Amino acid sequence: MFNDIKSCLCNAINSRLKCKLHNSSYFNILEQMKIVGPDSLNIVIVTAFFIGMVFTIQIVKEFLYINALSLIGSILTISFIRELSPVLTSVIIVGRIASYFTAELATMNVTEQLNALYMLEVNPLSYLVFPRVIACIIMLPCLNILSFITSLFSSSFICFTIYNIHPEIFFISSLSALCIQDIFKSLLKTVIFGCLISVISCFWGLVARGGAKGVGCSTTVSVVTSLLSVFIFDFLLSYIMFNKLGSSVKVL
């Protein structure tokens, strides 16, 4: 299966490199970027806001118990930027976008619309897969940053309203732990996740068979495979990126 997915990605890239981008291709990419980015923004922000508050409630009371007020912002910031924001954003995109991509392409496949593209001498990989891959690679890091900012402000809100921790104390602690390397690595994670999600979802859409039942089965397998890939690669990337780093927490 992974060899087939790799072959699908390579063929999409090669087919795109061999031809020029026309106005329709630019429009197609922009259309997919809108679907992945702006159309997913509301659910990403709402989810990040409430997950950030829930996570804060679980963390803050434990640090207040050991009188580590100055570490609260640092710990939450590191958790959000390294793990929670990229993974949470990717899971949302899997549920909303991967299922959409697979269902759309699978429907086109079982209704023989892909054969029509071949008859028109249009490469489906170049026309259908490549714009979706580019859209996910570009928009997922943007959603990740917005998710991180939302989680940070929701944490600050909970700290102030429930635990009476002034936002100034929270953000001073937060900024002391935030570094460019963590931001870059978080963005790199989402670029890789975006590539995985888009390629896997398009692959299962293109290999769908068996009418409406096949569309449903392909969509289910696509979502499950994408989620597993995100979790597995998250562990591998976290181990490579952060395992040998020293502590980012600075006691204020």
TrEMBL record:
Q: Does the keyword Chloroplast apply?
A: yes
Which residue spans traverse the membrane?
A: 40-57, 64-81, 127-149, 155-180, 187-207, 219-242
Q: Where in the cell is it found?
A: Membrane
Give the superkingdom in one word: Eukaryota
Q: Which GO terms describe its cellular component?
A: ATP-binding cassette (ABC) transporter complex
| Record flagged with keyword Amino-acid biosynthesis | no
Q: Cite the entry's keywords alphabetically.
A: Chloroplast, Membrane, Plastid, Transmembrane, Transmembrane helix, Transport
Q: How does it sit in the membrane?
A: Multi-pass membrane protein
Task: Give GO MF terms, alphabetically.
Answer: phospholipid transporter activity
Kindly give the Pfam families that the UniProt entry links to this protein: MlaE
The similarity annotation says: Belongs to the MlaE permease family.
This one is known as Ycf63
Q: Which organism is it from?
A: Gracilaria firma
Q: What is the lineage of its organism?
A: Eukaryota, Rhodophyta, Florideophyceae, Rhodymeniophycidae, Gracilariales
Q: Which gene encodes it?
A: ycf63
